[in-house]
Write a structure and sequence with these properties.
Low-confidence stretches: none
Distance between the termini: 52 Å
Radius of gyration: 21 Å
Helix content: 10-25%
Strand order of the largest sheet: 7-8-11-14-17-20-23-28-31
Structural class: alpha/beta
Shape: globular
Number of helices: 8
Number of domains: 2
Length: 416
């Protein structure tokens, strides 16, 4: 019994969230999909975009990749799952049920393949089907259609919406599955966590989990549901509230509401972050704020490379890719998408391509070469005692090449 996770061609529509990470490693509600599936205790296999494979071989040593010759001696997977599945407890329970089921067939969501149950293909056939990163050769019409309420994340704003909708169930699952100490009503603390004096906690709308070795500064407001990851540091006078997921080794200050912050990201100073997603290795300068509500109080439309998307969400902030940075007092307008490895100054009134110095308010926008970001990466990693590997540097070169169309769309506005 095993599971194969695949990335399809639609994973590109989740950019910039998935530019530097597999779709199954996108966090929402305190979990990503791999976290949940590991709890099933079955072997996991991955079919990834080619440029992520070397990095994931090191970062996910417990997960084998499609094409590994050692798989040929193992039985074929019981389930084939889309890596864009929402990492919810509902997904976990459906997958658990499907593993036990004797049925075979396919599950589609809005004409997108979500799962194949008990396929009869060999590893060689699977390698051929998924080698290009898109399961275009799978003929689901010849399979029985199975009806299961799986959900897929198709656009970047779906991750923010999913975080808000699933975090309560996810935190209750964490509480039931871990040996937390209940510090106060609805406040659960892991070993090594440190809490400052004069904290205000409100768990009337959901629990608060403070994981191992995290620290909370004095005079801080925590209003659940909140997940504060291992080694996270919350600075004094912060206000963290309402459906916040903070990854491990983050530094957080100011006001954060209904947001996902991936590991190793800093929002250390005062300023507002709301209804947003931040990737890893981001730094927000002091006073950086984003808007998550239009002046008209209407729903927010997002502008993606493939066109506009009506989100149906009244509150929606920004989506920022890995390694991007803001200068002091940067203001990010509602519903903006910021690529990977960009640096922003002043007001961000439009989407920002990847690998760009963005100071449009001052009439300046220039390309950032990958060599600059590699040097920046080395300094950031050194501060966190993280080794910079060849695959980390290669990732920056690969992302620069893959995101060139983003910069091409801005044409002459970008100086080279």
């Amino acid at each position: 019994m095993s599971i194969l996770l695949f990335e399809d061609s639609s994973v590109a529509q989740l950019a910039p969230i998935t530019t530097a990470r597999p779709a199954c490693c996108v966090t929402a509600g305190s979990y990503h999909l791999l976290d949940l599936l590991r709890g099933l205790g079955v072997p996991l296999h991955l079919s990834l975009r080619k440029y992520l494979r070397a990095l994931m071989e090191l970062d996910l040593p417990d997960v084998s990749q499609l094409g590994d010759p050692r798989l040929n001696s193992q039985s074929v997977p019981t389930l084939i799952l889309n890596a864009r599945l929402v990492p919810s407890l509902a997904t976990f329970r459906i997958v658990e049920e499907l593993l036990k089921s004797e049925q075979s067939g396919s599950i589609t969501v809005d004409d997108q393949l979500a799962a194949v149950v008990r396929p009869n293909w060999s590893w060689e056939q699977l390698q051929s089907m998924f080698a290009s990163g898109a399961p275009a050769t799978i003929d689901t019409d010849s399979m029985p259609a199975l009806d299961q309420p799986l959900q897929l994340m198709s656009r970047a704003h779906d991750v923010i919406a999913a975080n808000m909708s699933i975090i309560r169930d996810s935190l209750e699952h964490r509480i039931a599955s871990n040996n937390y100490q209940q510090q106060a009503d609805g406040v659960f603390v892991a070993d090594g966590a440190r809490l400052g004096e004069y904290l205000i906690t409100d768990t009337s709308d959901g629990p608060i989990i403070i994981d191992r070795d995290a620290s909370i500064g004095p005079y801080t407001l925590l209003r659940g549901p909140i997940y504060i990851g291992p080694g996270c540091r919350i600075l004094e006078h912060a206000a963290i509230k309402d459906e916040v997921t903070l990854g491990h080794t983050t530094k957080i200050g100011g006001e954060v509401e209904a947001a996902v912050v991936e590991p190793y990201t800093n929002k250390q100073h005062h300023g507002f972050l709301g209804h947003s997603y931040l990737g890893s290795w981001i730094n927000l300068g002091a006073g950086t704020c984003n808007s998550d509500l239009k002046n008209t109080y209407g729903t927010v439309n997002m502008e993606y490379p493939s066109g506009k998307a009506a989100t149906g969400m009244q509150f929606l902030g920004c989506v920022m890719g890995d390694y991007s940075k803001t200068a002091i007092n940067t203001g990010i307008f509602t519903g903006k998408v910021i690529g990977v490895c960009s640096m922003m100054y002043g007001f961000v009134t439009s989407n920002v391509p990847s690998f760009v110095n963005y100071a449009r308010l001052f009439g300046q926008m220039a390309t950032l070469p990958p060599e600059v970001m590699i040097a920046t990466q080395q300094r950031m990693f050194s501060r966190r005692k993280v080794e910079q590997r060849e695959c980390d540097m290669r990732l920056l070169h690969d992302m620069y090449r893959l995101t060139q169309p983003e910069r091409d769309r801005f044409g002459d506005e970008i100086a080279f």
